[in-house]
Amino acid sequence: MAAVPDEFGYVRVYHREGVKLSCHVTPTTATNVTWLHREKPTSRRLWEIYINGQIFERLRDRFSINNAAAGDYSLTILNIHPSDAGRYRCFDQQQELQNYLVYVSG
C-alpha cells in the first residue's frame, strides 16, 4: 500500500495504486459494521460497500475487509480508479467510527 491517510482522514492515491482505510471495533461489541462511499460531497447517492458481513459482489475483485473476526474492519482498495475518489465512512450501529476523504491523482 503506497497511500496512508493523514491525521485528518485525507489521503491522495495515484491511479492504479492501493490504499488501506482503518476501522477497528471490539469484536464482542461489533454488531453491524458498514462501509459507505459517497463520490462527491454534494451527491445524494451513497454506495454500500460492506454491509451484513459481505462486500458487494461487483467490488470483490478490488475491495476487501481485513480481519472482521478480530475486530479489524479496515477497508483495502486495490488498483484504485478515479471513480473510487470521495468520502468513505465506517459505521457500527449507525455510529460513525471513521471518516476518510480519498483523492485520486493521475
Offer a few descriptive terms.
106 residues; mainly beta; six-stranded mixed sheet; globular
- Kindly, what is the distance between the CA atoms of the first and last residues, rounded to a whole number of angstroms? 17 Å
What is the makeup of the main sheet?
6 strands, mixed
Task: Please state the CA-atom Rg, rounded to the nearest Å.
Answer: 13 Å
Quaternary state reads single chain
Overall geometry? globular
Write down the CATH class.
Answer: Mainly Beta
Derived from helix and strand composition plus strand pairing, the structural class reads: mainly beta
CATH homologous group name = Immunoglobulins
Domains (count): 1
Number of strands: 9
Percent helix? under 10%
Could you tell me the mean pLDDT?
A: 86
Q: Output the helix-strand order.
A: EEEEEEEEE
Tell me which CATH architecture applies here. Answer: Sandwich
CATH topology: Immunoglobulin-like
Proportion of residues in extended strands: over 45%
Q: Main sheet: which strands, in order across?
A: 1-9-8-3-4-5
Output the number of helix runs.
0
Uncertain spans, ≥5 residues at pLDDT below 50?
none
